Every structure is written in C-alpha cells, then in structure tokens.
Amino acid sequence: MSVTIKDIAERAGVSFSTVSKALRNSPLVQEKTKQKVLRIAEEMGYQPNIAARRLVSKKSQAIGVVWPSVERATTGALITLINEELEQRSYTTLLSINRIESAIAAFHRFQVDAIFIFYNHEEQVPPDFRYQTNIPILIYGVAGRVPYPTIDVRRDRATMLAVRHLHELGHREIAYIGEPSRFDLLQVEKIRMFREESERLGIRHSVVPIDNMETHSGYLAAKRILQQKQRPTAIISGSYDLTRGIMQAAQELKLSIPEQLSIVSYDNIPQSVTLEVPLTTVGVDIAKIADKVTETLLHLMNEESVPLSIFMEPELVVRSSTAAPLAASR
Amino acid sequence: MSVTIKDIAERAGVSFSTVSKALRNSPLVQEKTKQKVLRIAEEMGYQPNIAARRLVSKKSQAIGVVWPSVERATTGALITLINEELEQRSYTTLLSINRIESAIAAFHRFQVDAIFIFYNHEEQVPPDFRYQTNIPILIYGVAGRVPYPTIDVRRDRATMLAVRHLHELGHREIAYIGEPSRFDLLQVEKIRMFREESERLGIRHSVVPIDNMETHSGYLAAKRILQQKQRPTAIISGSYDLTRGIMQAAQELKLSIPEQLSIVSYDNIPQSVTLEVPLTTVGVDIAKIADKVTETLLHLMNEESVPLSIFMEPELVVRSSTAAPLAASR
DNA sequence: CTGTTAGCGCGTTCAA
DNA sequence: TTGAACGCGCTAACAG
Fold this sequence. Notes:
Low-confidence stretches of chain A: none
Oligomer: homodimer
Number of helices of chain A: 12
Mean pLDDT of chain A: 89
Structural class of chain A: alpha/beta
C-alpha cells in the first residue's frame, strides 16, 4: 500500500484536509504546520495518487506523447526539450510507441490533459483519428491534413533559403543529398523546392538518392558525387545526421570546407554549432519549436483557442560551412 | 463530461451497479439485461474511467518503462517487442525519458503495476535507487549491482563463443571492433573476454577503438584495419549496427564474406538473418529476452518471487558470414 | 487557521 | 437476479 495523506495526517497529528492544503501550498495553513507536514511527507516518500486527484479536479498534470517510430537525432532532441519544458511547468510527460489509435486510447484511459502526436510519415497506414475523446490533441508534421491543430515547419521555404544563399555566394553547380528510397512526405517538399528554385535561378543541380536518413547514407552519397569529374561546389543536406556523413566524406577526399566545398544543412540543433566546422543551417531552431509546442499545449489545456495550423518559418543561419566557390564566375 | 455508468443505468432503466456488473461480464446478470446494457454503452460511446476504477481495484494494467537515452537499433527493437507482448496480455506500456528517479516518481503517481528500467551505462551519475515505492521494479543490464531484480545477458560468454568458433574454423588473426571512447560497462565485459580467450587459444588479436556504436564508426574502423598489409581473417563486431558498417567496408574493398573475411556479430535480432549475407551471431535472441522480461514482469505483479539476478546465456548461431580462412594453417 | 463533510466514478460486499 | 451502501484518495466547500 502506498502512503496517503491520511497516513501523513496521522503522523503529523492533524486532519487529512490540512495535509492536503499544506501539500498544495495553500495560504490557509500555518507556516509551521506546513513545514512539518512537508517534512513528514518527504520522509514517508509520499506521491499523490493521480487517479484520485484526477477524479476530483479533472486534471492529471500529464501530457501524452505519441511517438510511433523511434529514430533520428533531431526527433529525439526535440522530444527531450519538450519534456524538459513541460517538466518545468510541473507536467509529466508520458510516451507511447504504440500505433496512433491505440496510443490515444491508452492516454484517454489514463486521463492525460493533452496529447501530442509525432506524425511519422513513413507509416504505411494513415492513422484513423476518429477515435472519440475530448482530450485536446496537437499534431506535429502534417499541417492542415488532419482535423486537429497542427504545428509544422515550412520545409520548402528552408530549401529555398539554402539555394538562394548558395546562389548569392556564386555557386552554380549544387547537389541535394536527402531523398530516401522510402516515400517520405517531409522530404518530398524540400526536394521539390530545391528543383524549382535552382531552375528559377539557372543553377545546375542534382538530387542524390539515398537509402535512409542515417549518417552513413550521407557519407556514401557524398563520396559518390564528390568523386565525379565535375563535382558540385556546394551540397545541401536534408538533415543533421546526413551532414555528419557528408563532412566525413569531404575530409577523406581532402576537400576543405568551406574553401573547396560549401555545405548547408537542414535542421538547426545545438550540435550544429559545436562541430569542427560550425554549420550554416536552414530550418527552425529546435528550441523554438519546443517552445511553440509547449505553449500551444498549454493553451489547449486551458481551453483557449489556437490556430488550426501553425506554420513556423525557417531561418538561414550562416556559420562557417559556406563561402564563395574558389573560381567564382560572378 | 464523459458518459458514466450512471448515464447508462438511467437509459437502460436499471441501477448503476447492474451496469457495472454487465460491463464486466459478471454471471450475476441476466443475459438479456447484459445485452441491452452493452448495446447502450456502445451507442453512448462509453469509456470506463480508469482513474475511478483504479481507485477501487488498485490495478492500472499499465507498465512503466524507463528509457533515459533514446538510441540504438537493438534497444529500440527490444522495447517494441516487450510493448507488443504486454499489449497482448492487455497491459499498456508507458514510457518515460526522464532521469531514473523522476521517472520512477512519475510512474508511482500514476500507479503503474510495475516498472521496467533500461539502465543506461553511459549515464554519468549513478542513479539513486533508494526512492521509496512498493511498485515492483525490474532492471535490465546491471546484474547484481542494484538492490532490485535484474535481467542481464552474460556478455562475456558471447565473445568467448565467438572467439572459439573462429578458432575452430582455423582463424589465427582476428580483430574486435566495438570499444567506444566513452566508458561503457556493457562493452568492457565483452572486450575483456575477447582478449582473455584469444590469448588462451594463442590467436593474434587486436581491438579497434571507435568513437561510438553507430554504423558509420564500424565502417571507418573496418576500413582502417582491413587495409593494413597483414589484415585479420576475421572480425568480431560489438553490435548489429557496427556490423552493417563493417560489411559495407568489406564490400568496398572487394573482400567477399565469408571467403576472404569472416564476421561474427554480437546481437541476435531478426535483421541479422535478412541481410545479403545472413550473419553468424553470438548473443541472446532478442525475442527470448523480451519473453523473459515480460514473464518476469508478470510474476512480479502477481507478487510471486523471482530470482534477484537472471542471467541469460548467449548462443552461437552459425549462418553464412563465417567460414574457414582461405589459407587455413591448421 | 483547522477540521468536517460531500462527492468525483467505479467495484464489491451484502440485502432484498 | 437486482439494488443499496460503502469506500478507494483526494479536493473543495463549509463550519468551527
């Protein structure tokens, strides 16, 4: 049996409702009594019973996060940040790796205050969101395609910024590494814009196919394309993981960055800065995404209205991995 | 407000306790009444309030899994399997990526029926397990070093099997890839035994240092060692991820497996079989680990006693990635 | 300031 | 076969 407020009350020699107030830091309790109760609660290892609290107050102070596929540096980093922000506001984050529908059902049973869904585009079957619940739901990654509030990044704008940046520096032959063999909507948008903008600016461009979004794939793709007779002077990478592989390949081929090869990487995460060569990136700062998600979740839980689709605008952050090509033909 | 058994009772014209019985399929209710209640519940979209149920029954039918670090193919696969097995037995799996102590506290508040901890050896600070709770706890990966039941693999035995297997095939020059720069207890055991057993059998051996346990590190390490004048005829790999990189390197160097290079990989996961060259592996079948974890968790929840330390014995599974060296000097 | 009381939704006696 | 009553742990309203 777990320790309850009654147990504490008995030990402290007060009534259990006084304990309840003390624990919730109510001003209706004498400071001395409060301290005593708190100390005893601590000693006894008290943890409030969420079930009982939820029964009365209708709040569980918990958020459910649905994360059907367990992967990639950026996703992991984002979840970690959101988790921290919510913890600071005394919310508990619970994760589920089940299919979306059954994850929602589970969180419904556990009466979480809100559900945040990482929508994985690689999933074969599109999830059925018709599951009945009045728990607020927020989705990441599918702006406007589902009947729920969503947060998403304008990925195509990110590639546009990257292409323009390279064009302005004088690059006229660029490559994009990041088209996985499995269909992935998140990547498709970026690539489409890469082609469009390159053509508009009259830049020679190519898209290098890869197996998956892992570091090693980036390495192999870069190795392949950089060994061609006419190699591109700049590469745009679809993710941080890929970029690490690309830089490794460049190093092995003795191509110095940015003198002989410029790299613009999608994803703006803290690691981007601490690499040997700090990366020029396009994308939304991951901390900003986490802020926005947390903020929106809080709004949702307070029953305040939020926009159905929130789009975050990517930024270009120029660091040390891009420069004018050696023989700039401007 | 959600629909409760009272609402159903009113509509069905029976008392709410009859509804409760009907929903739990009690034999104390007339079949006709039962059907009617069930139908109405369905119509009204009834979902039992777990909070209330748990208050009474003391069971939440949920397991908390603590997973402080989000990584590696094998870990992810294992969690997925455990999740599935528990789901089949109608348990819900909740994950937390918080530090061990606060994850336990959260699960305590949510009154899960058991907690399973993936102990991450890379964590700097050893967790404080003195947190008070009487929820059963099971830990993976630290046999005997904590005051809780643990499940672990005899990793050193795995390497021993690998070395012996290669020795019997006639290999006299082998390498081990899998010593990360950051201290990792899980790897240390394997490497120690690699050295011991090799020396005992009089085999020339070397351990190749790597940065981390990712595929790409395996690739780089293999590339390095296989280009030496006197290259080893066989490699033992510390993990499935590393092995993928090693095979890639071999392929680029035009070394055919197993004719020119034998590989024994640690980790026995389904992917081991479906590679171009099915892998000879040492380790415990991941499905068996998942079975054992699930089973132990169920015992723990039924308050049956379980051994304080459960060790799982690795097996050698010979597939197609090992053979006698070309110029076997037996 | 502190204690008493009621009730959240449900499962489980015990009576009817 | 059904229903009434109690209590799980907690919060909130009210009374002392």
